[in-house]
């Protein structure tokens, strides 16, 4: 449906040659913009209708006072299904610490949350197919699980800023929610407005880059630089991803374009994870609660994990 | 006079929330005392982990994300 729409607009309406660079790029852009935004709005609305009003405050209550493996399992799952804006990561971090939740578990949550969310998951299925979507989610869960455990080994408590330990948190006051159909509709509609308003820029930029890549980057360049089949493809992809920051949804069209040009699956996955989870702005915000050593450790653990994921997937596919 | 606090460490959504409340109060012709709480320790004292949070007369009425226009009117109105 979206492809024929793009055909109609770009090739018939605007009379671009499908063989030209610009025509191919524009076609990709029109197709992905329409497809992704229709999906975004639908999914966020439906999720908003059904969501049991999961908030970080609730997550904290679920996770506290549980044995380590249970707490980590919940932190990873809840991190994957709770949308949260990274500007909340400081109060979230302090709230978890204050509740006595181990730092390793908190890090598992902080890794899972930006990397996996239901919106990205559904769009992954729509654009790249369910097999790749499943691989991405599985890999993300595994990285979050073990990343937190590895962080814990280094005793990160010594790198938490002093004042964090002193903060006393008040009784968690969850505001009342309107559970009626009308209340749910209002909630879902405001979610759509809020989330789309927040991430549309990343998505458009992502689609733009994907389109340029699709239309202008020749396959010979790709096979030489990103798909050489040599071991350093994956580390290169991870390094490239660190300074790039995007929402997990925004990177999907880039991945789509890379895969059609013959970049290996593991390399593509590694880049996606690196872009979504390793971001400078988020790190700098976390600096308010943890010292540089912990940040460096966090970044290295994630970087190494993504490289391993990339290698493993390149080997088995 | 109502005391309304907006909890948030200065992200864009917190600014917007404070503005929404200010405008709603002006439209309703209600005088309110609007405070922005940016100190993280103080925010946590209200038990709020997702910002922006809104506190009306000492009670947390909202946490996380932009509030809807109906909610804002209710806060300044009653």
Features:
heterodimer, A: 317 residues, mainly alpha, 16 helices, 74% helix, globular, B: 78 residues, alpha+beta, Glutaredoxin, 3 helices, 41% helix
Major β-sheet of chain B, in short? Answer: 4 strands, mixed
Relevant CATH superfamily of chain B: Glutaredoxin
Structural class of chain B: alpha+beta
Largest sheet of chain A: none
Radius of gyration of chain B: 11 Å
For the record, the count of structural domains of chain A works out to 1
Q: What's the CATH topology label of chain B?
A: Glutaredoxin
Describe the fold and architecture.
The complex is a heterodimer of chains A (317) and B (78). With 317 residues, chain A is mainly α. Chain A has one domain (2-167, 180-316). Chain A is 74% helix and 0% strand. Chain A contains 16 helices and no strands. Chain B is of the alpha+beta class and 78 residues long. Chain B is built from three helices and four strands; from the N terminus they run E-H-E-H-E-E-H. In chain B, strands 2-1-3-4 form a four-stranded mixed β-sheet. Chain B is globular, with a radius of gyration of 11 Å. Chains A and B meet through helix 3, helix 5 and helix 10 of A and helix 2 and strand 4 of B.
């Amino acid at each position: 449906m979206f492809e024929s729409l793009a055909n109609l607009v770009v090739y018939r309406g605007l009379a671009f040659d499908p063989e030209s660079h610009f025509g191919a790029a524009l076609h990709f852009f029109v197709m992905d913009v329409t497809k992704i935004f229709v999906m975004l709005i639908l999914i966020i609305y439906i999720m908003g209708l059904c969501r049991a009003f999961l908030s970080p405050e609730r997550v904290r209550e679920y996770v506290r006072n549980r044995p380590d493996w249970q707490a980590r399992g919940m932190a990873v799952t809840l991190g994957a299904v709770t949308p949260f804006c990274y500007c909340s990561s400081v109060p979230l971090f302090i709230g978890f610490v204050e509740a006595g939740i181990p730092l390793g578990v908190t890090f598992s949550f902080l890794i899972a949350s930006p990397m996996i969310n239901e919106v990205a998951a559904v769009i992954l299925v729509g654009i790249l197919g369910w097999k790749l979507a499943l691989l991405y989610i599985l890999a993300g869960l595994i990285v979050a699980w073990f990343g937190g455990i590895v962080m814990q080994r280094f005793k990160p408590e010594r790198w938490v800023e002093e004042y964090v330990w002193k903060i006393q948190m008040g009784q968690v006051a969850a505001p009342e929610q309107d559970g009626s159909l009308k209340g749910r509709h209002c909630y879902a509609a405001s979610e759509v407005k809020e989330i789309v308003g927040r991430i549309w820029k990343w998505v458009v930029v992502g689609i733009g880059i994907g389109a340029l890549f699709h239309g202008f980057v020749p396959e010979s360049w790709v096979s030489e630089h990103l798909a050489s089949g040599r071991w350093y493809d994956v580390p290169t992809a991870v390094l490239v991803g660190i300074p790039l920051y995007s929402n997990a949804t925004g990177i999907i069209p880039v991945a789509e374009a890379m895969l059609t040009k013959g970049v290996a699956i593991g390399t593509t996955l590694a880049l996606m994870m690196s872009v979504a989870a390793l971001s400078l702005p988020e790190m700098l915000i976390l600096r308010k609660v943890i010292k540089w050593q912990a940040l460096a450790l966090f970044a290295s653990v994630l970087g190494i994990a993504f490289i391993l994921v990339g290698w493993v997937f390149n080997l088995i596919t | 006079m109502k005391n309304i606090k907006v909890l948030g460490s200065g992200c864009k959504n917190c600014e917007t929330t404070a503005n929404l409340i200010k405008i709603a109060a002006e439209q309703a012709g209600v005088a309110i005392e609007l405070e922005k709480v940016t100190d993280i320790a103080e925010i946590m004292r209200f038990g709020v982990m997702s910002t922006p949070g809104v506190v009306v007369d000492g009670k947390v009425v909202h946490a996380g994300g932009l509030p809807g226009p109906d909610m804002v009117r209710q806060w300044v109105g009653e």
